[in-house]
Amino acid sequence: MTSIDPQVVDYVHDVARRARVASRELALLTRAQKDAALHALADALEVGSAAVVSANQEDVERERAGGMVEGLVDRLTLTTERVRAVAQALRDVAALPDPVGEVVRGSTLANGLTIRQVRVPMGVVGMIYEARPNVTVDAAGLGLKSGNAVILRGGSAAGRTNEALVGILREALTAQGLPADAINLLTQGGRDAGRALMTARGLVDLVIPRGGASLIQTVVLESTVPVIETGVGNCHVYVDAGADLSTALAITINSKTHRPSVCNAAESLLVHTSVAADFLPKALAELAGAGVVLHTDARSGEYADTAGVAHDAVTDEHFATEFLTLEMSVAVVDDLDAALAHVQQFTSGHTEAIVTEDRAAARRWVNEVDAAAVMVNASTRFTDGGEFGFGAEIGISTQKLHARGPMALPELTTTKWVVEGDGQIR
Amino acid sequence: MTSIDPQVVDYVHDVARRARVASRELALLTRAQKDAALHALADALEVGSAAVVSANQEDVERERAGGMVEGLVDRLTLTTERVRAVAQALRDVAALPDPVGEVVRGSTLANGLTIRQVRVPMGVVGMIYEARPNVTVDAAGLGLKSGNAVILRGGSAAGRTNEALVGILREALTAQGLPADAINLLTQGGRDAGRALMTARGLVDLVIPRGGASLIQTVVLESTVPVIETGVGNCHVYVDAGADLSTALAITINSKTHRPSVCNAAESLLVHTSVAADFLPKALAELAGAGVVLHTDARSGEYADTAGVAHDAVTDEHFATEFLTLEMSVAVVDDLDAALAHVQQFTSGHTEAIVTEDRAAARRWVNEVDAAAVMVNASTRFTDGGEFGFGAEIGISTQKLHARGPMALPELTTTKWVVEGDGQIR
What we know:
Chains A, B: Its EC number is 1.2.1.41. 2 copies of one chain form a homodimer. Chain A is of the alpha/beta class. Chain A folds into 2 domains: 6-229 and 401-420, Aldehyde Dehydrogenase, Chain A, domain 1; 235-386, Aldehyde Dehydrogenase, Chain A, domain 2 (3-Layer(aba) Sandwich), CATH 3.40.309.10. The first copy, chain A, contains 15 helices and 16 strands. In chain A, helix 10 (245-257) links the parallel strand 7 and strand 8 (266-272). In chain A, helix 3 (49-65) packs antiparallel against helix 7 (159-175), helix 6 runs parallel beside helix 7 (159-175) and helix 11 (273-289) packs across helix 12. The model of chain A has no long low-confidence stretch (mean pLDDT 96). At the A-B interface, strand 2, helix 10, helix 15, strand 13 and strand 16 of A face strand 2, helix 10, helix 15, strand 13 and strand 16 of B.
């Protein structure tokens, strides 16, 4: 681990200290105040849309000239319509219940003390993410609604766009009589700023990395601030002996091809040997027809040959890879135990699906697979805050501490115990 | 950070891998199986009591000869009666509800998918703690009940005792047909074993340090496994202008002197200037009479002189110190804002108490103090899993992620989302 430029540390700590001061004020806002502010932020973004789009065009032109692939350029691009959509997302967050102040549990003790566990904001939340300007606005909005100050370190490719967005949001906060330091963008220091953020113990309460496996790995290993790991999804679909094969086909195709670039897309297909001959030729032909590059083990390779589709030999590296593209590893397994063992070896703990009409097999899958989401007869694509009805998503946790699976507003809070008495002593 | 002896890493990883295999079996046990095992463990400890006490005497004699202070010798010592008490604690844990399988929330989505968030064990939990043999048995029992395998790294001063205890517990597990690797003691590698434990990512799901500030600081800074910080308590009692002064006196004395060596004991007394003349001479005299060494600011020092009790000048270092002995820092503050600012500067985020009959002051304290527990008119000593009615306590979290305040069985679990459908795709 190389040392961090001390000037960058000073810069980030200074931002964090101001964010902490703002966070104390945010923690005490009523829901009505926060919702009004979210609407004001949304309005300001729409009013400032032209400036945002213009700043974004600078980013897009520079990055395209620098050779950024079109998939990433698309994620980077903001149009007037997309700015309107992110503004609308802020209004949608305003419509969600306020997690702050919720009484999680409580009781009156034998001695008359009343105790209650109440949701309160985390304080200062750092987000480290890639060049996706919509994440900037989402994180700011979810942070504000949950009473947290946020410190954003977005990918530098979106630098001008993020500055334009955060400039507008901070001005709108000030106009609302709220502290601008509720929403902070790290504009200096490059990667060292991210590293200073994740080591700002006592100033930052939580860091959430959102991005590829290497970004998340760096944050997890170097951070001394508590971290929530998100988003690496090496998801499997297992077609059991007891599967309805047309259901299995629909789930396999949907899980792999509906949106291959996201973490809840499937990367591996496992098929019970007893249904392989009936299922695989058709499934592999359909996957290949949808443009999926197939990495097959010996047995599934024979069915690919039967179907006359191209394939190469799968390796353990394939099995361990989150492709995030139209690629899939395929294997035939002898039984449910073999499927469970394979998943146990290669899972990233995100989403694992079984297709079966066999109740005992479904129960074993649900109980024995260790992942944020275990699915029976459903597409892996359903692991999502929006699909789960949370109304928002700040990321999908693949760790076990604090939050597991899609995270929304309550996951951005902690709790405090409030104990009230009449002079009780022990 | 110096590197860890690779042989110690191999040893710890080997233990962790065996613990992980055991954890899969533990996760599937019914409550009845776990409770029967806990009773069997308790019985075995009572049967093996003489061997434990004899091993403990070796530890005690060696440590006493080595100059261990009597307070620590007392915590290290096991008698037949104390062995019976730790065995009884296992039976008490058996009587508690099983957190595993609890459905935390759930719903049926518009598309007919049913989703439910279910409590499941963490997997493998590491505990790093000092020479307190009762923690060995408590952690083993709470781990078993919550379906987790535990890896224990206790203070080396209790080495023989811990080996005797864990040997008995593992034998009893085997006799119950359960995996002995559910309960593991690190007996080699000294401090490096602890460091290997806290960096065993992928093998260990959670590390809980229990002990002094320096142990916890080391774990938090070096660990790459998720950590829950516990137990540093720099707790304040603030006597407000609106306090009932006899209530304030009782709470001050109880918070400081009832059991000064524990984290929920008070370390600092803040008194509103308007009641200082009425309150402090009597309070300081009573504290001094109970043997409390007083560190006073200028104004409280004058009241100490009035009362004729010894005192020295308080420093910021005193204000920042968790004494864990009969010492207390004392200051007079101008108003509630000054008290809040002082607490904000020096709190360790454990427990902060106000004494007041003024509703507005109490509400501000509850809302504005950022700590695991905020108290109104109650002794700081009540922040405790037993007092809160949890029936057990694995530690008191002073961090914001996952758990805050006393931690019992549910805090040793995570959740998984179970999604069941009939072929739903997106």
